[in-house]
């Protein structure tokens, strides 16, 4: 019997890893010396960063979706049957169907999901853009909005660290184009003592906020929403009224991770260099599922996948995981006014965003179109 690679999750991390493995050990897969199976929850693959553009009528939702089967290489056995229980000691996974999947090497890429239910009242009164349903709901609310107070608030942790800044500045631009910015008070809140956790981003954002008339309050951690009064309160004791509440809900990892006892909150303890689950040489963790001290973002999944693939192949062939991930992350930051900037950093070097330009904005829009090549392991 050939060596069996099992990948849990068919999002960006799972898809990149699977497709890159095929490209690197194509002959071994053809001969049956190695097999690779991907378990996914759905056949629809979504470009998640694209949901940010949907509320502002900058993209159509159908542009952000593809069939997962068309993304994965034909040599990959793709099964729609999400994991119900992961037994890393016995080298097996139980699917929701009840089927048992045994493996020699396991790749866990189960991702993270927004959990508005963790903040009382947020599901009823809030809006978000991290899912298709949420983005469409926010799109409808913005189309009907004619003025008032918009509060932007976020829970922790959450994916895409610069999303709070992006949605705020894109909102400002959207309202100006709509001709109702002067009728709107944008009030931005953030959980720590700055407008962003990355000091360089916070330093850059403050004068931009002040120039555009965006008010802000720091040390504001969402506690609950009074739906009838349209009032958001914080753990710190302050409260703010709103006409429209745009939130970034707290995110958590997949429930199967906690239910299998692999990590609190759905985050698996992961070696930050080899990307192996702590204590298990044949289990790799990529994408949002790790507990790495870096951003949960698409680029993190991409850059870490490059390293994970090399180590997975080495372990499959009986070797050791010798390739080391340096924590590389690259994030575009949409700033409105048809401009964008970016941050690039790793475990050792903090980011410093350059001034926004139109060129970077178009680079970001271009990548939105090229993403499907990334998912296929090409770009």
């Amino acid at each position: 019997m050939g060596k069996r690679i099992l990948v849990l999750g068919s999002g960006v991390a799972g898809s990149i890893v699977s497709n890159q493995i095929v490209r690197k050990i194509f002959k071994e897969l053809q001969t049956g010396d190695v097999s690779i199976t991907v378990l996914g929850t759905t056949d629809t693959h979504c470009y998640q960063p694209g949901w940010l553009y949907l509320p502002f009528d900058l993209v159509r939702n159908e542009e952000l979706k593809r069939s997962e089967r068309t993304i994965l290489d034909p040599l990959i056995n793709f099964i729609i049957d999400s994991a119900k229980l992961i037994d890393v000691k016995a080298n097996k996974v139980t699917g929701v169907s009840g089927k048992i999947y045994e493996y020699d090497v396991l790749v866990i890429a189960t991702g993270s999901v927004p959990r508005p239910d963790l903040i009382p009242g947020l599901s009823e009164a809030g809006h978000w853009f991290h899912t298709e349903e949420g983005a469409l709901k926010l799109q409808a609310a913005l189309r009907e909005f004619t003025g008032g107070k918009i509060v932007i608030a976020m829970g922790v942790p959450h994916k895409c660290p610069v999303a709070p800044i992006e949605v705020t500045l894109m909102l400002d631009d959207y309202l100006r184009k709509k001709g109702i910015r002067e009728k709107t008070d944008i009030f931005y809140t953030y959980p720590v003592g700055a407008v962003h956790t990355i000091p360089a981003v916070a330093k850059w954002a403050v004068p931009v906020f002040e120039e555009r008339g965006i008010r802000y309050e720091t040390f504001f951690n969402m506690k609950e929403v009074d739906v009838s009064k349209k009032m958001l309160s914080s753990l710190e004791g302050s409260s703010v009224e709103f006409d429209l509440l745009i939130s970034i809900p707290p995110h958590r990892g997949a429930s199967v991770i906690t239910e299998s006892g692999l990590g609190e909150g759905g985050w698996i303890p992961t070696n930050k260099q080899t990307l192996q689950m702590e204590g298990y040489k044949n289990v790799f963790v990529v994408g949002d599922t790790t507990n790495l001290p870096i951003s949960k973002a698409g680029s993190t999944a991409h850059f870490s996948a490059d390293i994970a693939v090399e180590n997975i192949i080495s372990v499959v062939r009986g070797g050791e995981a010798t390739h080391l991930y340096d924590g590389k992350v690259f994030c575009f930051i949409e700033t409105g006014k048809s401009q964008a900037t970016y941050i690039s950093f790793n475990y050792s070097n903090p980011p410093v965003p350059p001034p926004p330009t139109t060129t970077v904005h178009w680079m970001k829009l271009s990548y939105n179109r090229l993403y499907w090549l990334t998912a296929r392991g090409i770009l």
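The mean pLDDT is 94. Residues 298-316 form the longest helix (19 residues).
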